[in-house]
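Open question from group meeting: does this chain pack into something compact, or does most of it stay loose? Before anyone orders reagents, we agreed to write out a predicted structure and look at it together. Recording both the input and the output here so the notebook holds the full record.
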Amino acid sequence: MASSRRIKKINELIKRELSKIILKEIGFPKNILVTLTHTQTSKDLSECKVFVSVFPEKETENVLKILDKEIYTIQQILNARLFMKPIPKIRFLQDKELKKAQEIDKLLNEIED
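Structure tokens returned:
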């Protein structure tokens, strides 16, 4: 089991490296902005959930399909870049927290008016 401090550093490292990989290696359709919002690595370092935010939001499913299709390539590049053992298996998921925050903000604005 890794310490919480080590997990935090691993999360930051994986997020930074995946951002570079996705920017340079994955071809998304034009006018789509993909952001890696945060990562969650399991304590045993077997898995890392990578949360993705997409603009426009209606393209989220399409982007997740592209990432899932390219997961093997992305994982291989990540494995070559990280000097650690074990290297967590990555999974891409939609980040729903941002949408929830926007909905709460909208409700609060409606209450003020």
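Observations to bring back to the group:
Helices lie at 4-25, 60-69, 71-81, 97-112.
Residues 14 and 48 are 9 Å apart (CA to CA).
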